[in-house]
Amino acid sequence: MSRLGLFTLLFGLALVAAEQGYEGYRIYEVTPTNAAQGKLLHGLSQQGYDFLSLSRLVGHPSRVIVSPAQLSSFEELLKEQLISNRLLNDNLGATIAMEFAQRQLQRRLSPITGKGRLSTDRYYTHEEITNYIDDLAARYPERVYVKTVGWSYEKRIIKTITITNGDRRPNKKVIFMDGTFHAREWISPAAVLYVIDQLAEQFDQNADLLKDYDWVILPVVNPDGYEHTQKGTLARIFRKTRQPYKYLGQTCYGADPNRNFDFHWNEEGASSTPCVDTYAGPKPFSEPETVVVRDLMHSLADRGVMYLTIHSFGNYLLYPWGWTNDLPETWMDLDEVAKAGGDAIEAATGTVYAVGSSTNVLYIAAGASDDYAFYAGFNISITMELSGGGITGFDPPASKIDEFVTETWIGIRAMAEKVIEKY
Ligand code: ARG
Ligand code: ZN
C-alpha cells in the first residue's frame, strides 16, 4: 500500500470511529430446524430486529443484526428455543468502518467517470450512472434513448434507458427491468449496468434479444437511499427511501419501497411503524419513487411481457405471489422462466439459485413491485436476489463485482430467451 493509501485508510478509520456507527453491534447467523423456529425468527423481524437476510426454509441460514441493548434477550431466546446459531461478527461498527475506508481508498485511485464504458471494478454513484446512460444515448442515438420519468423525494432525477435494435418498429413487446429498490443492495445497480452494457455496447452478440423486444431499464429506483448509503458507515446498511416520518417524537427516514405498492398493501410482512425497515409507508404509493415505477408499469403493461427487479442477496429467483401462499393460475409459466435462469447459472458457475414463489421460498411480504407488475398485466414477473458478500451480505468487495454481474447476466439472458420463445 502506498503512503497516501495508508494515510487515507487511517484517516478513514479515525473518521468513522468518531461516528460510532454500530459500535458493539453483532451479527448472528441463525438457522431454523423446524417450521416453528422459522416463524419465530420471522416474528423477530417485525419487532425491531434488523435481518440482513431472512429465509423461511428450514435449514436455510438467516443473518440478523443484534444491538447491545437487544443482546441479552436475544441470547436467552436462542438458548430457550434451541435455535442453531453462529456469531459471525462481534463488532459491526469496526467492520463497516474498515470496508468504508478501503472504498475511499479505491475511489481515490479510480476517479469519477460517466463517459465511455463503465468497468466492473468499482461501484458507481447515481450521478455517474445517470451520466453513463446519457452518454450511451448520445453515442447510439439510433438504438438507445433516455427518458426522465420522475424525481425522488430529495429531487434527484430518475431516468430510464430504452434499448432497441434500431428498426423503429412501434409497439414491440417489452422487458422492463429495474434495480436499486433497496439502498444498501449495491450489487443491484452494478448488475443492471452490466445488462445495459451487453445490450447496448455488445449489441452484435445480443441482437437476438432485441429483435422483437425493447428493453426498458430503470437502474436506480431509489437514488436518495442509494446516495445516503455512500455517506458513511452508519448509513451503509440503510434500506429505504428518504422521506422523513415522525414517530413518537423522533424522526425516522423512509418507507420500504418494496412494501409501498397498492396491491394487498400492508397486509402481511410489512410494518406500520416508520422506524422499522419494512415500513409500508403511511399509505400506498406515499413515495414518489414507487409512483414512478407504478406509472411506468401501467404505461408498458399492454406490451410488457416480463418484469424483472434486481435485489440482493440470497440467490433466489422469486415469482408471485408474495402476499399469499397461493400460487397464480399461470405459476407453471413463471416457474419455467425462473428455472431457465437458475439452471443456466448453475450450469455455468455452479451457483445454485432457489426458485419458487416469494411467499413459499422466502417469506410473505405484500405491497411489493413484483406482485404489482404481475397484477398490472406482465405475463412474467421475477425478483432476482443476487449473491451476497462482505460481512453484512450487502457489501461484496469490488473485486467480486465482475464475477457476480457476469453470472447474473447468464441467468437474465436465459430467462429472456425463454420468454422470447414462449410469448
Ligand atoms: N427481498 C425482497 C423484499 O423483501 C423480496 C421481495 C419478494 N417479493 C414479494 N412480493 N414478497 O422486498
Ligand atoms: Zn431488496
TrEMBL record:
Name its GO BP terms in alphabetical order: proteolysis
Signal peptide start-end: 1-18
So where's the catalytic machinery, residue-wise? Answer: E385 (proton donor/acceptor)
Key words, A-Z: Carboxypeptidase, Disulfide bond, Hydrolase, Metal-binding, Metalloprotease, Protease, Signal, Zinc
- What does the record give under GO molecular function? metallocarboxypeptidase activity; zinc ion binding
Short name of any one Pfam family annotated for the protein? Propep_M14
Which cofactor is recorded for it? Zn(2+)
Q: Which domain of life is it from?
A: Eukaryota
According to the entry, every stretch annotated as the Peptidase M14 domain falls at 122-419
Q: Which GO terms describe its cellular component?
A: extracellular space
Coiled-coil residues are none
Keyword Metal-binding on entry: yes
* Zinc as UniProt keyword: yes
Into which family does the record put it?
Answer: Belongs to the peptidase M14 family.
Q: What is this protein called?
A: GH14882
Origin species, per record, is Drosophila grimshawi
Lineage runs: Eukaryota, Metazoa, Ecdysozoa, Arthropoda, Hexapoda
